[in-house]
TrEMBL record:
Sequence similarity: Belongs to the DEAD box helicase family. DEAH subfamily. PRP2 sub-subfamily.
Gene Ontology CC annotations of this record: catalytic step 2 spliceosome; U2-type catalytic step 1 spliceosome
Domain Helicase C-terminal: start-end pairs: 236-410
Descriptive protein name: RNA helicase
UniProt enzyme class: hydrolase
Natural source organism: Oldenlandia corymbosa var. corymbosa
GO biological process annotation, one example: mRNA processing
Length: 679
């Protein structure tokens, strides 16, 4: 544990406000000192004054200055919570969790009591929660049950510069709410840049700037282009590490994703082991979105004397989380970026070069407490060719879910919604088309009963539709298990490199009937449940125990939501019924076998393949539906299930006519309808 058990007196303000603290935990004096040493502390009174005088305020301050952890506490101390809770939104789940934990410790309260967090499928708040850290997506969902945010006195939309889709949508909604509720304070906080744009959008709101403290950071470029950024990052980290000086700082390496981080970790372990005791101890700390909560805190543990820490992080360490003690930055210059092609409906996550703004932020993660060094694993020319900023997410993502949320909030005219940056028209059209096809919207674009029920689930609309449809086929219990696993986004099958064969054999035991991956996933869940959720069973069957535990949690949440959506909990082992429910949700993702083993999608006539990891890869059926398309060496369908074309007409008669289904060019598409409701 980071903090020794030690009791201190709560400050007077805290005592006054937090009268019912039952478990004052380990807040140390050091934490109180930390609070005062943050750049924002000097501006506390001034800030409170400005907040008092401005209903809407843009706050700009360098990363690490204390915006996220301190401002909500200042407002609490200034008693804003008398009228309601303080919400602070984050685009990233890990940031919401980690920051809430930090603030709870600073206030000496138990996480989930006065300070809590709420992220999709996990709510750690209680009746007494007054500071609520949450993902921007969760606040959007809360608007469905509380359109005026009546239980909040302050909304702080944090990390506004990230411009996540949910943040962008929140902007438009909270702007309206603030107009209707003069008692609501609205703070928009951002690390840098674009503040004029924020101010302009919020009707010339005032900007409050927290001056940062900064030491010089030496930036190094490579002389020539690096062939393998991962190997180069690992080597650079080791080069720095072997020259450890007393009092030297830690290393932060930015990598695009979990896979690279895991590989780098392995490479570093091998290489340091090879060097034995010739080098000082190197403590390797990964941090990424799917890292289990228990391990996330490790990055903040201060490095012992004589050792060095190397943090391997995704973009999460760029502005959302600040790790103290970093002196060296290694920046390969890549991140994962989502792109969306409305024409094909394909959303991909690709490793792409970062923007100049990102590179600057990354370098700035050193030099906070002393001079820093930044090693860019690219040339100066490459830097000069980088884009200034990344495009906001709303320009490059599928909006079906967002449109359904807006419709369920009663926003009819989506095209004229007050977007800070409007999404591409084609993306909106596609989203409306999909929702009409799923029956969530009627043809003029009004939310239907089905749509209202779908909107209860924080899932992709196709998954929500499967669950709603499962009511009819009396298999809601099965469908929430399947949806829970699919919503994880990562495989539940464990495939260690050295045991590929054993793992494949184990996997085949779940293939019963070979009708598809959805049913196989259901078999995994049900078999695990029969063992009373045994961890040992997962090990024996090459199943990822962590993913399954997460799926179980998600499933529990979905079960609770069934009631809200007026769906009975029913169980039915007939796989035909289950497949009908599945097809009711993803009938637009139908593909037909071609000569040579490829498939052609019905919707856009693309050539695609069954993913090699699929149950159906060895025996491709004539017709399939798929959960998603992923692009690697080819376009692959992932999570594939066999269907009979007759089913299409049964579940989506408005969309398919039987005589059409054999010919992909003459399918019935409600395209014109989708466009019509935009006007
Ligand atoms: P900002 O939002 O302005 O970027 P924060 O409020 O997130 O700043 O961070 C302020 C300080 O709190 C930083 O120095 C950071 O290192 C520290 N901090 C935040 N979370 C933790 C944690 N879990 N453990 C230790 N220090 C933390
Ligand atoms: Mg912050």
């Amino acid at each position: 544990e980071e903090d020794p058990i030690k009791f201190i007196k709560a400050t007077e303000v805290e005592q006054g406000l937090l009268s019912s603290i039952s478990e004052v935990n380990t807040t140390s004096e050091r934490l109180a000192d930390d609070r005062k040493s943050l750049p924002i502390y000097q501006y506390k009174e001034k800030l409170l004054e400005v907040v008092k005088d401005n209903q809407v305020l843009i706050i700009v301050g360098e990363t690490g200055s204390g915006k996220t952890t301190q401002i909500p506490q200042y407002l609490l101390e200034a008693r804003y919570t008398r009228r309601g809770k303080i919400a602070c939104t984050q685009p990233r789940r890990v940031a919401a969790m980690s920051i809430a934990a930090r603030v709870a410790r600073q206030m000496g309260v138990k996480l989930g009591h006065e300070v809590g967090y709420s992220i999709r499928f996990e709510d750690r708040t209680s009746d007494r929660t007054v500071l609520k850290y949450m993902t921007d997506g969760m606040l959007l969902r809360e608007l469905q049950s509380e359109p005026d945010l009546a239980s909040y006195s302050v909304v702080m939309v944090d990390e506004a510069h990230e411009r996540s889709v949910s943040t962008d949508i929140l902007f438009g909604l909270v702007k309206d709410i603030a107009m209707a509720r003069p008692d609501l304070k609205l703070l928009i906080s951002s690390a840098t840049s674009d503040t004029e744009k924020f101010s302009e959008y919020f009707d010339s709101a005032n900007i409050f700037t927290i001056p940062g403290r900064r030491y010089h950071v030496d930036i190094h470029y490579t002389e020539t282009q690096v062939a393998d950024y991962l190997a180069a990052a690992v080597d650079t980290a080791l080069q720095i590490h072997v020259k450890l000086q007393p009092g030297d700082g830690d290393i932060l390496v930015f990598l695009p994703g979990q896979d690279d981080i895991e590989n780098a970790e392995e490479m570093l372990r091998l290489k340091t082991r090879g060097l034995g005791t010739k080098i000082p101890e190197l403590i390797i700390c990964p941090i990424y979105a799917n890292l289990p909560t228990e391990l996330q805190a490790k990055i903040f543990i201060p490095t012992p004397q004589g050792a060095r820490k190397v943090v391997l992080a995704t973009n999460i360490a760029e502005t959302s989380l600040t790790i103290n003690g970093i002196k060296y930055i290694i920046d390969p210059g890549y991140c994962k970026t989502k792109t969306y092609q409305p024409r094909t409906g394909m959303e991909t996550l690709k490793v792409t070069p970062v923007s100049k703004a990102s590179a600057t932020q990354r370098a700035g993660r050193s030099g906070r407490t002393g001079p820093g060094e930044c090693y860019r694993l690219y040339t100066r020319d490459i830097y000069n060719s980088m884009d200034e900023n990344v495009e906001p997410e709303i320009k490059r993502t599928n909006l079906a879910n967002v449109v359904l949320t807006l419709k369920s909030l009663g926003i009819e005219d989506i095209k004229n919604f007050d977007f800070m940056d409007p999404p591409p028209g084609e993306t909106l059209t596609k989203a409306l088309e999909l929702l009409i096809a799923l029956g969530a919207l009627d043809e003029p674009g009004k939310l239907t009963k089905v749509g209202r029920r779908m909107a209860e689930f924080p899932l992709d609309p196709m998954l929500s539709k499967m669950i709603v449809a499962s009511d009819e086929y009396k298999c809601s219990s099965e469908l929430i298990s399947i949806a829970a696993i699919l919503s994880l986004g990562n495989s539940v099958f464990y495939r260690p490199k050295d045991k590929r064969k054993d793992a494949a054999t184990a996997r085949e035991r779940f293939y019963m009937g070979n009708v598809g991956d959805h049913i196989a996933l259901l078999n995994v869940y049900n078999s695990w449940k029969e063992t009373d959720f045994s961890t040992q069973w997962c090990y024996e069957n090459y199943i990822q125990v962590r993913s399954m535990k997460q799926a179980r949690k998600v499933r529990e949440q979905l079960e609770g939501l069934l009631k809200m959506a007026e769906i009975e909990v029913t169980s039915n082992a007939n796989d035909l019924d289950i497949r009908m429910a599945i097809v009711s949700g993803c009938f637009r993702h139908t593909a037909r076998l071609q000569k040579g083993g490829s498939y052609q999608t019905v919707e856009s006539c693309r050539t695609v393949y069954i993913h090699p990891s699929s149950v159906l890869a060895q025996a491709p059926p004539r017709w399939v539906v798929y959960h998603e398309l992923v692009e690697t060496s080819r376009e692959y369908m992932r999570q594939v299930t066999e269907l009979k074309p007759e089913w299409l007409e049964k579940v989506a008669p408005h969309y398919y006519k039987l005589e059409d289904t054999e010919d992909c060019s003459s399918k019935k598409m409600p395209r014109a309808v989708g466009r019509a409701c935009l006007n």
